[in-house]
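Hi there,

I know you've been waiting on this one. I reran it after we fixed the sequence typo, so this is the corrected version. Both the input and the resulting structure follow.
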Amino acid sequence: MDADSRIFLERLLSTPGVSGAERPVQELVAEYARSFGANVRSDLHGNLILSTNEGADTRLLYAGHADQIGLIVSFIDERGFLYVQTVGGWDPQQLVGQHVVVWTDQGPLTGVISRKAIHLLDESERKKVVEIKNLFIDIGVTSKEQAEELVRIGDTVTLKLGLTELKNKLVCGPALDNRSGLWVVVEGMRRSILSGDLGCALYVASTVQEEIGLRGARTAAYSVDPHVALAVDVTHATDCPDADSKQQGAVGLGKGPVIVRGPNMSPMVTQNLIRLATLYKISHQLTALGRAAPNDSNELQISRGGVATGLVAIPNRYMHSAVEVVSLEDLDAAADLLMWFALSVRSSDQFLPQV
């Protein structure tokens, strides 16, 4: 990972993009993509589409979703406390005690989510599971009027953003699902363009609203109409206490990207990914998924008349939390794998199953 791509990753992890409010992330991706010569356009849904070598006959699409889970302000009480709804799949226990940022028209506004001190909780309260309806954000004001001068209903909220480095080239942050996958597809395109040997039309979709129903992948894939596509998202790492490797697979950080096998994936695409990873000595892992994936590959596969689809996943500990953890080495290896995959696709390639 060179200096420019590392800076791009850090900026991705410091930029808000709750589902439906992805524009700041898309502006960042567009700026970076133009720096290495990609064509850039957006659609009415909010997807950002990058492209290069569009004259080639075979269209290859990489998809990584730009959105993150978050909150949305739904009520302000008389004392200026903010109540919220969730955007995407939250465990409310993860929110207690967190620093948050409300993204207002006037700029970011810091707040905190907390609850009564342990000393004040009775025995029954200590045993209760926290519900989102009982959580509130304290922004430090003393009245509804003060709060409404700063915040509007519908403003989005994220956890405090950023990247923290751990040992062994691991990094931690609250938006690694799926800024890590988005980084991989954009970086994979950059490396493909710089190679000078691209034989297909390569598109990258920075998709919106994955966390609320895979919505952006549906519209982006319809627009691009690819012959073959790869989604890159995170998957659960099982190299930590309480993870069930028997069901989720044996997935570890630093052991390379995960190539997923199962009915949502084209066997031809999957086998080519495995072949290239082996040929170019890219560390990789395999997992199985016996159903339609809960990510963009689901929609890619069934767009229009069907798309030969693959799924590459980045191992992630503690998904949908403030402390998601991934390996920089896995990200770098995944970007290399996508580069080699793009370089392997030629205009004469056919992805129809043999009958």
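Quick highlight: The first strand starts at residue 39 and ends at 42.

Best,
R. S.
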